[in-house]
Design brief:
Family: Belongs to the IL-6 superfamily.
Largest sheet: none
Keywords: Cytokine, Secreted
Subcellular location: Secreted
Main location: secreted
Protein name: Cardiotrophin-1
Length: about 200
C-alpha cells in the first residue's frame, strides 16, 4: 500500500510500480468517463447559450462575473499541488456541481419550458457528475487518500433561486452560464489529473 500511495504523489517516480488489476481497471474506467464528460460539457455549454437569447452568444458578449456559494474555478495553483490533493479538490467540486446543475435545470424549466433537450442535457450532466465524483472518491480510497470535506450541496443551490424581475432573469441566466462553464472546467481538470494515474499512459 505504501508503494501505491507514493505513486499517487508522483506516478512517474518509479515506472516499475504496477497497480493491482482491479485498481488499474477502475482508474482507466474513471479516466474514460471524465474524458467523455469533457466532450459533453462543451456540448452543454453551446446548447445552453443557444437557448438564452440575446445578448448571450453574440460576438463580444462578456457576462458579468458572479460568484457561487461553495464552488469556484480551479485555482491557478491547482497544477502545482500533489496529485492526491488535486484529486480531493476534484472530488469536492464534482460533489458540489450536481445540485447547481439541478438548480439550473429547474430555472430553465421556467424560462425555456419548450426546450426538453436542454433540460435533459442538464439532468444528464448532474447524474453523470455524481457518477464521476463517486468514482474519483473510490479511486482515492483505494489509493489510501480518501476524499474529505462536507457536502456543500444545500448552500450551493441558493444563488439560483427564482427571481421575477428582468434583472433577476438575466442574473439567473448568467449564473446558469457560469455553472455550465464550471462543469466543463472541473471535468476537464479531473480528466487531466486522472491521466497521470493511468498505467502505461493515457488510454
Amino acid at each position: 500500500m505504501s508503494q501505491r500511495e507514493g505513486s499517487l504523489e508522483d506516478p512517474q517516480a518509479d515506472s516499475s510500480i504496477s497497480f493491482l488489476p482491479h485498481l488499474e481497471a477502475k482508474i482507466r474506467q474513471t479516466h474514460n468517463l471524465a474524458r467523455l464528460l469533457t466532450k459533453y460539457a462543451e456540448q452543454l455549454l453551446e446548447e445552453y447559450v443557444q437557448h438564452q437569447g440575446d445578448p448571450f452568444g453574440l460576438p463580444g458578449f462578456s457576462p458579468p462575473r458572479l460568484s457561487l456559494v461553495g464552488l469556484s474555478s480551479p485555482s491557478p495553483s491547482h497544477a502545482g499541488l500533489p496529485l492526491s490533493e488535486r484529486l480531493r479538490l476534484d472530488a469536492a467540486a464534482l460533489g458540489a456541481l450536481p445540485a447547481l446543475l439541478d438548480a439550473v435545470r429547474r430555472r430553465q424549466a421556467e424560462l425555456n419550458p419548450r426546450s426538453p433537450r436542454l433540460l435533459r442535457s442538464l439532468e444528464d450532466a448532474a447524474r453523470q457528475t455524481r457518477a464521476l465524483g463517486a468514482a474519483v472518491e473510490t479511486v482515492l480510497a483505494a489509493l489510501g487518500a480518501a476524499a474529505r470535506g462536507p457536502d456543500p450541496e444545500p448552500a450551493a443551490s441558493a444563488p439560483l433561486s427564482p427571481a421575477s424581475s428582468a434583472s433577476g432573469v438575466f442574473s439567473a441566466k448568467v449564473l446558469g452560464l457560469h455553472v455550465c462553464g464550471l462543469y466543463g472546467e472541473w471535468v476537464n481538470c479531473t480528466e487531466g489529473d486522472l491521466s497521470q494515474l493511468v498505467p502505461g499512459g493515457v488510454a
